[in-house]
């Protein structure tokens, strides 16, 4: 019987009852229009210290967060695995034939892994992070992509400002494993010579002539200027938009929830209640805290729910209300306690614990829906400088997961307690987090993963969506000839994109992360 | 320690605002779209027949739809108003002093109107549509912007493909008032000569000379773009929009789901399935789509049962978008208008007073819908042939975008059940065809009643409610 539908229990998606195998499988939108079937290889291009890895990691984090499985393949890391001891810049000298052979092997190994990721591991986008500064090398990558039916999108970073280059070297190169045993001055000098090795043979992308048929974006002078050629599809258009909105100005993002609300005290979820007495005290404490932070031009954003606005009012500063920052809509469960939900909707209660990210409340939302709703907030946060976002538990978890590169699986369990400000500062390739509890007591609204959920997500539940992953750790299997186990670069409590040599940040508030 | 200001919820939009002395204070600003404090002056640049007016009008339509008050100022129009009859391209010769004088006057008159719009009438963006092909002219305009506190953003269209230029001339120039008494060949020849008049003095935006300006250069109808110094949110959105639009011929089909069970009962919202007539419609839709013989049609639905059931009958792949879901009527979900009048008479009246901005308690407004639908519009711009099966309020929002309707008109656009609207871009706008698929359905359109006062009678409130079971 055509038009007979049933609603999936977890995601509340209507699907036909009789599955007709002859028709192409239905695919349900995660966080964007239907992705093309062809996976995409993003090819970074540029001299060393031009921000290629920075952009690779950031872009990957963004794409994974919006639900597009993406992974970075950094050829430098492959090289470090093969060549145990980095000697000096002479390794990169164009006349060093032995080294050239090794470097080519590394690129090929990385491409093999790209192929595996995109064809067999469910990847949608692979970011091939290397200098790729010669036409020859880029042609090799284009051929590889053609053989495999992958789309290719080039991202070139061009920058001749010596102060920018120097500051990049300081930020991320001096602490590289390559320079483990060098002084800063030595490292700087060697790295500059390394750059010279590439400069001689550098053939920038030439969209006016030789590369007129390639899809590419040239980022000039850290985003002052862009040249975009032949954007092929939705995802490339989003990538261009994202790259055009990010910047590298130092700034701080503050995330916190509203002060404790009347409903928090009663253990009720959702609703639109006002602050409790303690919640009001928190707002005052927040005001004082901000004064002490002594920030230049702080923007303040709230949701359109009373409790965040009341909190902002105490700051005596202008603020903007965003409906998109409203708490997750619990649908029929709005304003209930968890006990009431368990009693009235026992099946829903159980389903939510099974898969909290994809679970959608009846006539309400899921965390997955929240991410889609919050994407414009993230985009605007990238454009802005100092911002304080006063929001809600589920919303804050989504935003935090973006900044700290947490997976869909971890996101609904991130700890975002009341009366605690999370201060995020971009550093190197990631984000430093400081957790500041403002010393006003509040109820605990955090629910841990249930025993059911710990058994792992039900694979049947993912039938019609692709699991977004956080940027995965470098693959542990042997890539070329070496077999050195790479321990995951961070423990789960650290932002996952800090280079592994950086000592544990003492200021990280473990209390607020899983 | 002064206690924080008390909050009150605005009854129409349900926005919490502080009030003192019993009156709402103008402190908090609800965010619709991020608006810069400075108005923005967009300056088009390019030879004739490069799509400047096409881009101006489209961009203006988009910005107004997302809530940014925008207006275009076409200098050619000012010239036509001043010089009653157009004779020939010689008016545009670079050594025609009389012509030059008039053209300068027109540009100045247009800029005066720009100033009035941006500085006195609450406009946020003005699009100054003229060739602006010399650096000197652009500097004058930039200075004008600076003096008045406007940010200036240039949009240049560069195209050397003779086929594109010829097609543009056919699409929009031959029908221009300038050529009302000419044959097509005559008009084309004259226009080509007109373009030549500008070529010699054309100074394209230059990488070095113009490196401090904010601009986008569009090359070959969007094959490539050069973007320089984007200053703020609105410029970034403009760039994103310009990079997503295209001129490939295509059609967009908008329709609602087939008649639903709740439609029959006169109830709003909910998530019911199709009535028997609704199912009939779905089959007719399948036939219709088949007959249209559309190349590579994409089909989009909401995530509500009734649109999906409708799509299922088509037998083709479709995509479900949650953002296409019907407006959330909050506490009024699944009520009839009679019940709303009974349980929420104040809300019912407020809605009639300002249907665009009115937000249902715990629900949404049309204004919220537009914000929610913006990604759909953006993706529709990227796509080619698309059929969108959606809902009444949603369809009104999408239609308002394509037909450039105001916020006041939007909530009253007629989008009856079982009727497909076919939109085809033509010249500077959209051709609209309405096709009723010959399956009867209830009428769900409620006109604005005469009396919208909160003290009106039940009768007055319900006068325009369409019949239902």
TrEMBL record, chain A:
Annotated segments matching region Disordered: 446-481
GO biological process: fructose 2,6-bisphosphate metabolic process; fructose metabolic process
Keyword Transferase belongs to the record: yes
Amino acids binding substrate: 257-264, 307
Active site feature: 258, 327
One example GO MF annotation: ATP binding
Compositionally biased intervals (Basic and acidic residues): 446-455
Tree of life domain: Eukaryota
An example Gene Ontology CC term for this record: cytosol
Residues annotated as domain 6-phosphofructo-2-kinase: 30-250
Key words of the record: ATP-binding, Hydrolase, Kinase, Multifunctional enzyme, Nucleotide-binding, Phosphoprotein, Transferase
Database matches in CDD domains: HP_PGM_like (cd07067)
PROSITE patterns in alphabetical order: PG_MUTASE
Pfam families (UniProt xref): 6PF2K (PF01591), His_Phos_1 (PF00300)
PANTHER family cross-referenced by the UniProt entry: 6-PHOSPHOFRUCTO-2-KINASE/FRUCTOSE-2,6-BISPHOSPHATASE, 6-PHOSPHOFRUCTO-2-KINASE_FRUCTOSE-2,6-BISPHOSPHATASE 3
Protein family according to the UniProt entry: In the C-terminal section; belongs to the phosphoglycerate mutase family.
Name the record gives this protein: 6-phosphofructo-2-kinase/fructose-2, 6-bisphosphatase 3 isoform X2
Organism of origin: Phascolarctos cinereus
Lineage, opening ranks: Eukaryota, Metazoa, Chordata, Craniata, Vertebrata
UniProtKB/TrEMBL annotation, chain B:
Residues reported to bind substrate: 256-263, 306
Domain 6-phosphofructo-2-kinase residue range list: 35-249
Molecular function as annotated in GO: 6-phosphofructo-2-kinase activity; ATP binding; fructose-2,6-bisphosphate 2-phosphatase activity
Alphabetical GO biological process terms: fructose 2,6-bisphosphate metabolic process; fructose metabolic process
InterPro entries: 6Pfruct_kin (IPR003094), 6Phosfructo_kin (IPR013079), His_Pase_superF_clade-1 (IPR013078), His_PPase_superfam (IPR029033), P-loop_NTPase (IPR027417), PG/BPGM_mutase_AS (IPR001345)
GO cellular component terms listed in the entry, alphabetical order: cytosol
Keyword Transferase in annotation: yes
Signal peptide: none
Active-site residues, record numbering mapped to chain: 257 (tele-phosphohistidine intermediate), 326 (proton donor/acceptor)
Keywords: ATP-binding, Hydrolase, Kinase, Multifunctional enzyme, Nucleotide-binding, Phosphoprotein, Transferase
Keyword Nucleotide-binding among UniProt keywords: yes
PANTHER family: 6-PHOSPHOFRUCTO-2-KINASE/FRUCTOSE-2,6-BISPHOSPHATASE (PTHR10606), 6-PHOSPHOFRUCTO-2-KINASE_FRUCTOSE-2,6-BISPHOSPHATASE 4 (PTHR10606:SF14)
Family: In the C-terminal section; belongs to the phosphoglycerate mutase family.
Protein name as annotated: 6-phosphofructo-2-kinase/fructose-2, 6-bisphosphatase 4 isoform X2
The organism's taxonomic lineage, starting at the top: Eukaryota, Metazoa, Chordata, Craniata, Vertebrata
The encoding gene: PFKFB4
């Amino acid at each position: 019987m055509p038009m007979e539908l049933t609603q999936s229990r977890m995601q509340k998606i209507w699907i036909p009852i009789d599955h007709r195998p002859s028709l192409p499988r239905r695919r349900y939108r995660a966080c964007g229009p239907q992705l093309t079937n062809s996976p995409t290889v993003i090819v970074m291009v540029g001299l060393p210290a031009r921000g290629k890895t920075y952009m690779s990691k950031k872009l990957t984090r963004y794409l994974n967060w919006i639900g597009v499985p993406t992974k970075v393949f950094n050829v430098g890391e492959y090289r470090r695995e093969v060549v145990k001891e980095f000697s000096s810049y002479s390794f990169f000298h164009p006349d060093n034939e032995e080294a050239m052979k090794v470097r080519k092997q590394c690129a090929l190994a990385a491409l093999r892994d790209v192929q595996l990721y995109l064809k067999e591991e469910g990847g949608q986008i692979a970011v091939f992070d290397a200098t790729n500064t010669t036409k020859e090398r880029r042609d090799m990558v284009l051929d590889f992509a053609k053989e495999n039916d992958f789309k290719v999108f080039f991202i070139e970073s061009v920058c001749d400002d010596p102060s920018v280059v120097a500051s990049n070297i300081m930020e991320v190169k001096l602490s590289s494993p390559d320079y483990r045993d060098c002084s800063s001055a030595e490292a700087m000098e060697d790295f500059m010579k390394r750059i010279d090795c590439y400069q001689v043979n550098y053939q920038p992308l030439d969209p006016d002539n030789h590369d007129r048929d390639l899809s590419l974006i040239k980022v000039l002078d850290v985003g002052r200027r862009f040249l975009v050629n032949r954007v092929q599809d939705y995802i490339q258009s989003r990538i261009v938009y994202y790259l055009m909105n990010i910047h590298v100005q130092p700034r701080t993002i503050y995330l916190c929830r509203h002060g404790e609300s009347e409903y928090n005290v009663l253990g009720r979820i959702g609703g639109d209640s006002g602050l409790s007495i303690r919640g009001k005290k928190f707002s005052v404490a927040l005001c004082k805290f901000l004064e002490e932070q002594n920030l230049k031009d702080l923007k303040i954003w709230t949701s359109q729910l009373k409790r965040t606005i009341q909190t902002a009012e105490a700051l005596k500063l202008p603020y903007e209300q965003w409906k998109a920052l409203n708490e997750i809509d619990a649908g029929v469960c709005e304003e209930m306690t968890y006990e009431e939900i368990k009693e009235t909707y026992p099946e829903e209660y159980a389903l939510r614990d099974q898969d909290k990210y994809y679970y959608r409340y009846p006539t309400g939302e899921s965390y997955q829906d929240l991410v889609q709703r919050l994407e414009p907030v993230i985009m605007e946060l990238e454009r802005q400088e100092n911002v304080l976002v006063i929001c809600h538990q589920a919303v804050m978890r989504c935003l935090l997961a973006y900044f700290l590169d947490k997976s869909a699986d971890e996101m609904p369990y991130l700890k975002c307690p009341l009366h605690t400000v999370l201060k995020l500062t971009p550093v190197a390739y990631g984000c430093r987090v400081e957790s500041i509890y403002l010393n006003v007591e509040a109820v605990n609204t955090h629910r841990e993963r249930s025993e059911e959920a710990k058994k792992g997500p039900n694979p049947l539940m993912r039938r019609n969506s692709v699991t977004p992953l956080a940027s995965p750790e470098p693959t542990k299997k042997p890539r070329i000839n070496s077999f050195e186990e790479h321990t995951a670069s961070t423990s789960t409590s650290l932002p996952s994109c800090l280079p592994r040599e950086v000592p544990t940040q003492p200021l990280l508030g473990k209390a607020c992360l899983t | 320690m002064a206690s924080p200001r008390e909050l009150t919820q605005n009854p129409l939009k349900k926005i919490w605002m502080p009030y003192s002395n019993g009156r709402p204070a103008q402190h908090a600003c609800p965010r619709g779209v991020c608006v810069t404090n400075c108005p923005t002056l967009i300056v088009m640049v390019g030879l004739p027949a490069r799509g400047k007016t096409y881009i101006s009008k489209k961009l203006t339509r988009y910005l107004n739809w997302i809530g940014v008050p925008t207006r275009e100022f076409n200098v050619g129009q000012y010239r036509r108003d001043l010089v009653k009859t157009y004779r020939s391209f010689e008016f545009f010769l670079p050594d025609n002093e009389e012509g030059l004088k008039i053209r300068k006057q027109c540009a100045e008159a247009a800029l005066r109107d720009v100033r009035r719009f941006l500085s006195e009438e609450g406009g946020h963006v003005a699009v100054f549509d003229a060739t602006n092909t010399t650096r000197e002219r652009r500097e004058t305009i930039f200075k004008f912007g600076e003096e008045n506190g406007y940010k200036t953003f240039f949009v240049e269209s560069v195209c050397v493909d003779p086929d594109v230029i010829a097609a543009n001339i056919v699409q929009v120039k031959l029908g221009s008032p300038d050529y009302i008494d000419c044959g097509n060949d005559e008009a084309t020849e004259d226009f080509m000569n007109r373009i030549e008049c500008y070529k010699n003095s054309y100074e394209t935006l230059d990488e070095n000379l113009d490196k401090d300006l904010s601009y986008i250069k569009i090359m070959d109808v969007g094959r490539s773009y050069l973007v320089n110094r984007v200053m703020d949110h609105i410029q970034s959105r403009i760039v994103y929009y310009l990079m997503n639009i295209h001129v490939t011929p295509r059609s967009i089909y908008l329709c609602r789901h087939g008649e639903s069970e709740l439609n029959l009962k006169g109830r709003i919202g909910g998530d019911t399935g199709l009535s028997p007539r609704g199912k009939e419609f779905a089959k007719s839709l399948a036939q219709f789509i088949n007959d249209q013989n559309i190349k590579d049609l994409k089909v989009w639905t909401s995530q509500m049962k009734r649109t999906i059931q409708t799509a299922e009958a088509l037998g083709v792949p479709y995509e479900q978008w949650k953002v296409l879901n019907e407006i959330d009527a909050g506490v009024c979900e699944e009520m009839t208008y009679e019940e709303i009048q009974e349980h929420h008479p104040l809300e019912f009246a407020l809605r009639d007073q300002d249907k665009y901005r009115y937000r249902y308690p715990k629900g949404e407004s049309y204004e919220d819908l537009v914000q929610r639908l913006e990604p759909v519009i953006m993706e529709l711009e990227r796509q080619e042939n698309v059929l969108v099966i959606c809902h009444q309020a949603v369809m009104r929002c999408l239609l308002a975008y394509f037909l450039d309707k105001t916020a006041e008109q939007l909530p009253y656009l007629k989008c009856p059940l079982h009727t497909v609207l076919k939109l085809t871009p033509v010249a500077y706008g959209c051709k609209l065809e309405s096709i009723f698929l010959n399956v009867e359905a209830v009428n769900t359109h409620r006109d604005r009643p005469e009396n919208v006062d909160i003290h009106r009678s039940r009768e007055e409130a319900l006068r325009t409610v369409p019949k239902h079971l």
